[in-house]
Amino acid sequence: MSGALSALGSFWAWFQYAFDPLCGPVGLFNLLGSSSLVACGAAGWGDEIAFGVKVTVSLSLATLPIGLMIGFFVALAMQSEEKSLRMAGGIYTTIFRGLPELLTLFIVYYGVQMGIQAILAWFGNEQRIEINAFAAGMIALSVVFSSYCSEVLLSAFRAIPKGQYEAGDALGLHRGRTMRLIILPQLIRIALPGLGNLWMNLLKDTALVSVIGLSDILRQTGIAAKVSKEAFFFYLLACALFLALAVLSSIGISMIDRWSNRAGGRR
């Protein structure tokens, strides 16, 4: 079993290197030559910046499904007939839309550590706890993303006629199947433009995690700028990398939008 896991790990490492768009065999940084500031290996900062790109993309992709799931349930609560659920959803969105993202990140990163340490101290354990910066960034960005996402989804829910629910009842579908088969396909199509904008904001907000030590694009280029004294070059490179991610995201969102419109037309 351990041999199979080792082989799988080796294959994954090779796959990451072979298809790395920056430091792979045909990566952009390698094509610029071994004498450039972004050369891969010991001669330049290419490896570090490529790692920062992976961290930024990984953090965004890890945050997206969590934020969507939380936002979906908050949107359901905000349109519930139960007053307490509507109030709880409204309080949640007001808090996390009102707080600056950086402050939310600090509260999660430092506050959760202090809370865990206080609980351990209450049980007589004085061990110092430090939570993972990636996990803290993911949690903080997820709650911020979900607070905005819930408003987008709530607007999409309200755009769907109530007759759609009644049609599901008339067909003998319980509310869970009505939601999955009738409401959700329409919800995705209606909410997609707004969710696409939120994804773009999420990509940019990942730069905030550099302040808690996570090695994202901004932190890696910042370190390179300080050491090499080439601040303009490396911060311009950070701009180019974020813009490249935005362009790729726009293409992906457009493809999903066309697919959802074709799927809706077939129905």
Automatic annotation (TrEMBL):
Transmembrane parts of this sequence: 55-78, 99-123, 135-160, 181-200, 232-256
Gene3D superfamilies: MetI-like
Molecular functions (GO terms): transmembrane transporter activity
Entry-linked PROSITE patterns: ABC_TM1
Highest taxon listed in the record's lineage: Bacteria
Pfam families linked to this entry: BPD_transp_1 (PF00528)
Intracellular or extracellular location(s): Cell inner membrane; Cell membrane
Annotated ranges, domain ABC transmembrane type-1: 53-254
Main location group: membrane
GO cellular component: ATP-binding cassette (ABC) transporter complex
Membrane topology qualifier: Multi-pass membrane protein
Alphabetized UniProt keyword annotations: Cell inner membrane, Cell membrane, Membrane, Transmembrane, Transmembrane helix, Transport
NCBIfam families assigned: HEQRo_perm_3TM (TIGR01726)
Family: Belongs to the binding-protein-dependent transport system permease family. HisMQ subfamily.
Name of this protein: ABC transporter permease
Source organism: Rhizobium terricola
Lineage: Bacteria, Pseudomonadati, Pseudomonadota, Alphaproteobacteria, Hyphomicrobiales
